[in-house]
UniProtKB/TrEMBL annotation:
Disulfide bonds join 80-84. The keyword Disulfide bond applies. This is Protein SCO1/2. Belongs to the SCO1/2 family. PANTHER family: ELECTRON TRANSPORT PROTIN SCO1/SENC FAMILY MEMBER, LINALOOL DEHYDRATASE_ISOMERASE DOMAIN-CONTAINING PROTEIN.
Length: 205
């Protein structure tokens, strides 16, 4: 029995030591570890990437043209009756809070309804919320590719040909120009929480 007890104690010590080693190593492996609130299935590299879209002036732009500074990227549509305007206002407020603290962050609105959201429409929609916000559209193929890169969901509802609705996911993504996708925010995240988390990531980038 004594040997069993000794062996069990030795195993416990190894387990504790191993856990401590993992704990102390983690921050060094991930510079953003102090900022993360949750793990991302498949890793952060599974979200984000290159895209080609169209800006408010009808000019073709890529992710390199758009994400030149830390950005809050959101996929929605301008005919959305409630969710998209509320989320866009929240993201614009978060960007304003960050600006007050000395951080330059760009809110980006990417439509998932290119049929109705022309360059002019998305441009005017974005300007309603912030002169910092960039509105983007594109061909159905370009929009689909951008949505797939960020693993978002959208589907046009059946019904009225003119006033149809679009089901879609509602995450906001923090994207850094040098490292890409950093974090996502749910609808219930407040502007203050977004600003605090975004500032942490920017400080550690």
């Amino acid at each position: 029995m004594r040997w069993i007890a000794v062996t069990a104690a030795a195993i416990a010590i190894v387990a504790v030591t191993g856990a401590a080693w993992l704990y102390t190593r983690a921050p060094g492996d991930d510079p953003f570890a102090p900022c993360r609130s949750a793990a991302v299935a498949g890793g952060t590299g599974a979200i984000g990437g290159s895209f080609t879209l169209v800006d408010k002036d009808g000019q073709t732009v890529t992710d390199k043209d758009v994400i030149t500074k830390p950005s809050l990227v959101y996929f929605g549509y301008t005919f959305c009756p409630d969710v998209c305007p509320l989320d866009s206002a929240r993201n614009a407020e978060a960007a304003d809070l960050l600006a007050e603290r000395g951080y330059d962050v760009t809110p980006v609105f990417i439509t998932i309804d290119p049929e109705r959201d022309t360059p002019q429409v998305v441009g005017e929609f974005a300007e309603v919320f912030s002169d910092r916000m960039i509105g983007l559209t594109g061909s159905p193929e370009q929009v689909k590719a951008a949505s797939q890169a960020y693993r978002t969901y959208y589907k046009k509802q059946d019904g009225d040909d003119e006033y149809y609705l679009v089901d879609h996911s509602t995450f906001t993504y923090l994207v850094l120009p040098e490292t890409g996708f950093a974090e996502f925010f749910r609808r219930d995240t407040t502007p203050e929480q977004i600003a605090q988390t975004a500032a942490c990531f920017i400080d550690h980038s």
